[in-house]
């Protein structure tokens, strides 16, 4: 076994893992603050992917240029969804309806994509800016993957900065720790909820627009990402940002190493089986409490 | 409840049961019969889901894995060993029950969202395994070997959907009766106690783990029965059709729409939503691809907003109706 192979696998695992962390980070923020698992997360990601794809195919420019529009669009959409759907469901005692409502949104959006864009698989096959490979000392990685990893790190950095340094960020943390006390301290928790929801979904716009370069977009592209993201969030311990990033990288590593050493077809199997095993020992995830 | 209302309920239930019994002779078009067969099939799935989700508070999104295990077991046994699908149905149900028990170990400490996500992972594990397992046809799937003549013994009928109609109706009635019986028994009371508060139930000496196991096993058994029926009805199965997140999610959404923890609610939900989806789909044809499920998704969201306890909540006073409706449906 060559050392470069191991390093190569490590790098691939890291890039995939950072991408997953980028998808999962919004999910974990939303969970931490609102106690809602957004099962429609994958479909919101697909919106960003369509933005990227159509910017390339209709305007003929790099799909990364769609980012600002996608981020704003998703942020507004997230805010609307929170304001008119989630906030109302949160008031009900019925926990099942809180789980199911985002599944309803997911089914709705998926069918909407099918109706608008048909079920075709599309991908950006010749992006003017993001193409080719990056090679450092015999280790390869494709440019789009490197770009998504960098974007993911940037998002993680800014989210951390936002949470730790700004008043709103601190208020969000306070709300997630103890809603009632936060309210007593004069924090408008309802507003924190909607900001978190909008922010968590807007994050998807950052990485989502460049995804059609490495993979493809169809109405169903979201759900594998989403299921992996749920697994990551559950592994990382719900609501923990650091846990989520670490779990994302761990899942990326397991996927690439498992795919290489076990069997490529079983790469996701390795992830899910590991997750089910971890649950036996730590029901609240590796980093959960 | 006054006598007048009771009589009204009785007579309307009688009308409904007679209608269901003679339906295939009123609607001779294969499509309309197919819709009702789907109603019965999803009805059984929804009832089995309700036993776990509604009574034991285990929100499973992996129910189509049990469905798929049923479909695969009977088909594999028939292809490789020539074993009759009826026996395959029972074996599939038992196998599915065992898998359910096995999966309940890693998930025994999980609640709510955590459990839901674990069942999603379970669903994907099952699907990936079947996609790569040559013996069961891998990604190509399996075709059920055809017999020349229609025969009840071989569970295969050509040229008419009517036998399938009555078989699925019979299976649904059996499933509902069995579930109702369990719910009314001591086990049902334990499960409800467990749902309201696992801690209190445990402190009263109820072996919570044991009753969760029973609920999962029975639920998985019933879902697998539905799966075997599907395989015999469509005569072809592959991993995406037999084990899809789509079916799982539909079953959950339908049950919640109707009202969980009632058995009647999920039945009511299926009776409304399955025909709705099929009719919209058929009405709009290829041009309206996706619209049926857009409506479905929207209906669910609206229901969660206006009545989180489901449609059945509006029929709360109809105590008598609850019992009779099941025997009819």
Write the layout of secondary structure elements.
The complex is a heterodimer of chains A (289) and B (329).
Chain A: H1 3-34, H2 41-59, H3 67-90, H4 95-117, E1 133-136, E2 139-142, H5 143-165, H6 167-177, H7 179-184, H8 189-208, H9 211-214, H10 222-236, H11 241-261, H12 267-281
Antiparallel strand pairs in A: 1-2
Chain B: H1 3-26, H2 30-55, H3 63-81, H4 85-107, H5 112-132, E1 142-143, H6 162-184, H7 186-196, H8 198-203, H9 208-234, E2 236-237, H10 239-242, H11 245-258, H12 264-284, H13 291-306, H14 319-328
Antiparallel strand pairs in B: 1-2
Helix pairs in contact in B: 1-14, 2-6, 2-9, 2-11, 2-12, 3-4, 3-9, 4-9, 6-9, 7-9, 11-12, 11-13, 12-13
Describe the protein's architecture and organization.
The complex is a heterodimer of chains A (289) and B (329). In chain A, 74% of the residues lie in helices and 3% in strands. Chain A is mainly α and 289 residues long. Chain A has a two-stranded antiparallel ribbon with strand order 1-2. In chain A, strand 1 and strand 2 form a beta hairpin. In chain A, helix 6 packs across helix 8. Chain B is mainly alpha-helical and 329 residues long. Chains A and B meet through helix 3, helix 4, helix 10 and helix 12 of A and helix 4, helix 5, helix 11 and helix 13 of B.
- The amount of helix of chain A comes to over 70%
Main sheet of chain A: which strands, in order across? 1-2
Please state the structural category of chain A: mainly alpha
Strand content of chain B: under 5%
CATH topology-level name of chain B? ABC transporter involved in vitamin B12 uptake, BtuC
Number of helices, counting only DSSP H or I runs of 4 residues or more of chain B: 14
CATH fold description of chain A:
ABC transporter involved in vitamin B12 uptake, BtuC
Low-pLDDT residue spans of chain B: 321-329
Arithmetic mean pLDDT of chain A: 89
Return the structural class of chain B: mainly alpha
For the largest beta-sheet of chain B, the strand count, sense and barrel status come to:
2 strands, antiparallel
Q: How much helix, percentage-wise, in residues of chain B? A: over 70%
Mean pLDDT of chain B: 87
């Amino acid at each position: 076994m060559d050392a470069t192979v191991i390093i190569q696998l490590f790098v691939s695992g890291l890039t995939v893992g950072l991408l997953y962390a980028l998808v999962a980070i919004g999910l974990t923020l939303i969970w931490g603050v609102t106690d809602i698992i957004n099962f429609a997360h994958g479909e919101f990601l697909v919106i960003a992917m369509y933005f990227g794809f159509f910017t390339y195919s209709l305007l003929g420019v790099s799909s990364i240029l769609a980012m600002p529009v996608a981020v704003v669009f998703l942020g507004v959409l997230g805010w609307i969804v929170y304001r008119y759907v989630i906030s109302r469901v949160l008031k009900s005692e019925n926990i099942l309806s809180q789980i199911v409502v985002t599944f309803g949104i997911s089914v709705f959006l998926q069918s909407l994509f099918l109706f608008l864009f048909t079920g075709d698989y599309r991908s950006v096959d010749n992006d003017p800016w993001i193409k080719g490979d990056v090679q450092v000392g015999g280790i390869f990685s494709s440019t789009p993957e490197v770009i998504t990893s960098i974007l993911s790190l940037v998002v993680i950095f800014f989210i951390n900065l936002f949470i730790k340094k700004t008043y709103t960020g601190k208020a969000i943390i306070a709300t997630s720790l103890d809603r009632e006390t936060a309210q007593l301290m004069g924090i408008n928790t309802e507003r924190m909820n909607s900001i978190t929801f909008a922010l968590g979904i807007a994050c998807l716009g950052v990485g989502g627009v460049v995804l059609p370069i490495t993979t493809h977009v169809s109405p169903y592209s979201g759900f594998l990402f989403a299921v992996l993201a749920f697994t990551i969030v559950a592994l990382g311990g719900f609501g923990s940002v650091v846990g989520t990033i670490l779990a994302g990288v761990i899942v990326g590593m397991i996927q690439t190493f498992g795919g290489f050493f076990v069997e490529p077809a079983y790469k996701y199997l390795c992830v899910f089986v590991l997750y089910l095993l971890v649950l036996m020992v730590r029901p609240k995830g590796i980093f959960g409490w | 409840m006054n006598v007048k209302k009771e009589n009204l309920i009785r007579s309307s239930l009688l009308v409904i049961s007679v209608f269901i019994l003679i339906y295939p002779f009123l609607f001779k078009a294969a499509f309309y019969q197919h819709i009702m067969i789907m109603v019965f099939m999803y009805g059984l799935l929804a009832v089995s889901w309700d036993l776990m989700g509604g009574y034991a508070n285990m929100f499973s999104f992996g129910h189509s894995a049990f469905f798929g295990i049923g479909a695969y077991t009977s088909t594999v046994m028939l292809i490789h060993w020539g074993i009759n699908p009826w026996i395959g149905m029972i074996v599939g149900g038992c196998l599915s029950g065992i898998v359910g028990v096995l999966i309940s170990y890693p998930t025994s400490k999980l609640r709510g969202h955590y459990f839901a996500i674990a069942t999603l992972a379970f669903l994907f594990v099952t699907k990936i395994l079947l996609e790569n397992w040559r013996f069961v046809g891998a990604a190509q799937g399996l075709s059920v070997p055809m017999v020349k003549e229609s025969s009840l013994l071989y569970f295969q009928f050509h040229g008419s959907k009517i036998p399938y109609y009555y078989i699925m109706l019979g299976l649904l009635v059996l499933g509902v009766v069995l579930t109702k019986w369990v719910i009314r028994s001591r086990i049902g009371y334990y499960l409800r106690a467990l749902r309201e508060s696992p801690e209190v139930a445990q402190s009263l000496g109820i072996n919570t783990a044991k009753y969760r196991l029973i609920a999962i096993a029975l639920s998985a058994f019933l879902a697998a029965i539905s799966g075997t029926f599907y395989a015999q009805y469509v005569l072809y199965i592959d991993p995406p059709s037999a084990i899809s997140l789509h079916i799982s999610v539909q079953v959950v959404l339908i049950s919640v729409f109707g009202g969980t923890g009632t058995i009647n609610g999920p039945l009511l939900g299926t009776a409304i939503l399955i025909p709705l989806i099929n009719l919209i789909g058929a009405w709009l044809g290829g041009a309206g691809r996706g619209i049926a499920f857009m409506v479905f998704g929207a209906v669910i969201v609206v229901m969660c907003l206006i009545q989180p306890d489901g449609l059945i909540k509006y029929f709360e006073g109809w105590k008598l109706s609850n019992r009779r409706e099941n025997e009819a449906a």
